[in-house]
Fold this protein.
Amino acid sequence: MKNLLFSLFTTFFTFMSLILYAQIDEVNPGDGIRISFLDVQDVITGDYYIQPNGLLNLPVIGIINTTNKDFNEIKSIIEARYDSLYKDPHLSVNALYRINILGEVENPGFYFVSDSEKFTAILAFAGGTTEDADLGNIKLIRNFEALELDVETIVQEGGTVTDFGLQSGDQIFVPRSWWSDNYGWVTILVSVTALLVTTYAILFID
């Protein structure tokens, strides 16, 4: 009985891991693929985007249908096709996820982020954070659900998009700090307190 339960648990865990892995590697229409050749003279290096119908048109090798394929499958197809045309090509293939960066950044909006990009570079795409940003409470929003990000650890460890699980369509929200929102009221409170203390000292302390 214990062996059966263990087998069921292992199967379930493996199944869920595969689902999660597939979601992380998923690319959608509107996302892109970055091709980099180091030793080929043909004009191939560049960013190419998946059309609404799921088709990806690449130089020399033509059209690839990305529908129902994760990034690893698409990457393997691209590498195989170019490998059949060029001898031992030094080829790099990266996913470009279309994400939305919101909140206290200089230039909020949509950006294409490589799967090898570091977190600090992602914020730099949006012009960096404002002086009012609360860096300790940055949120990752996915399917209307806010997920906590341990930004300090991610930055210290040099985490990439792949490391912290950024997906196509995600939103990164940089909130405004509590101090920025309440600075005026705090200043008034401190001033009033100082005035009361001064008045008390004048009236009641000899």
In short: The chain is about 40% helix and 25% strand. The two ends are 85 Å apart (CA to CA). Strands lie at 32-37, 46-49, 55-58, 62-65, 91-103, 109-114, 139-142, 145-148, 171-174.
